[in-house]
Amino acid sequence: MSGFNVGARLKQLRLRATLSQRELAKRAGVTNSTISLIEQNSVSPSVSSLKKILDAMPVSISEFFAGEQTSQERVFYRASELTEIGDGQLSWRLVGARRPNRSMSIIHERYPPGADTGADMLEHEGEEGGVVVAGTIELTVDGEARLLTAGDAYYFDSRLPHRFRNVSDSECVIVSANNPPSFSDGSGERHHH
Amino acid sequence: MSGFNVGARLKQLRLRATLSQRELAKRAGVTNSTISLIEQNSVSPSVSSLKKILDAMPVSISEFFAGEQTSQERVFYRASELTEIGDGQLSWRLVGARRPNRSMSIIHERYPPGADTGADMLEHEGEEGGVVVAGTIELTVDGEARLLTAGDAYYFDSRLPHRFRNVSDSECVIVSANNPPSFSDGSGERHHH
DNA sequence: TGTCCTTGTTGAAGATCCTTGACGGCATGA
DNA sequence: TCATGCCGTCAAGGATCTTCAACAAGGACA
């Protein structure tokens, strides 16, 4: 039912990196036994352990499970099916998140009043652009700020430092695209007890 | 280090599905306490538990971690400055038309009632996707038709024959993107969306 | 042969996850 | 006001994951 063989997948990646169980364990900060048991599917590792192990290869967790996606190339997405990649404050809903080798990221973005991508400017490879669908947004690119309202648009080289901020008192909605596909994610830390 | 907030992500998905901790737990075959502890990052769930929970939404494990990937001229356009490339019946307004070596075409599209890209299906290189902002559109891709309404989205390989048609009695608005850009600047040749 | 290194496996002990069964808070409604 | 129901949280203990430490098998070298 699981449909995904964690042990086999780990072994495959480990061998691809030409690492022994012990060597991988050492880099990952776990014991060789852990690797052994996981590879035999004798246990189902915790996400935290799995992540430690993958980080040592390195392979992202998302990549680890990449084979799990049914490789289906979907065309239609209901609004509720878009993949939320926002941080709780602002909402970014990605179209076709699971699509393999997507050439663009198309995102339905909602910025409540006060929402802000942060004073430390974003910078990454590629190009991005979008259209403001509703509300007002303050967009700063390379030091130049502008207020955009419904119907206005933007397009810039993503290497230029940029920032989105809703300085109005109503929600702002944007549909954006960027190429090559990239998106960041809020971060957090797990704690022990 | 973790860089990925499992608890917040689970909560986000659960709320999107409008499920309580108890209801999700019931469907997943775990207890509500498990959900609670995971959402608080008090524990790092085992992969098997996480999978049971996600299966109940349903969300693939790959999708769960989709946001985990690390991220890595003229900028502003007033609505009136977008370049109209429609045919008089429907309106397509291109963002950054004159930008050299643009990697995408982002288009603000308006389809009045009855508007139609034509019975002879469009086919061209690249990929395209978009979000329906208002109204309803009938999108046919590779023989399969679907009605999309505000908030819905699509993404497909542009080589598949496709057609957009507004079969409702109100205007439909879409923001779309395609890559590589199918439209060069304002001059002459238009090839199709 | 013998030693030394590496490999992956495994039982028992320890650490963590998960469930049981409670609790208080906040609604709805008798 | 009290009952009912659903919400999310939490302590304790059982279930599972992870480590520790030992083991056997194989290769390299003398």
TrEMBL record, chains A, B:
Residues 10-64 form the HTH cro/C1-type domain. SMART domains: HTH_XRE. GO terms for molecular function: DNA binding; DNA-binding transcription factor activity. Keywords: DNA-binding. The keyword Transcription does not apply. InterPro entries: Cro/C1-type_HTH, Cupin_2, Lambda_DNA-bd_dom_sf, RmlC-like_jellyroll, RmlC_Cupin_sf, TransReg_Diox_bact_type. One of its GO terms (cellular component) is cytosol. It comes from the Bacteria. PANTHER family: HTH-TYPE TRANSCRIPTIONAL REGULATOR (PTHR46797), HTH-TYPE TRANSCRIPTIONAL REGULATOR PUUR (PTHR46797:SF11). This is XRE family transcriptional regulator.
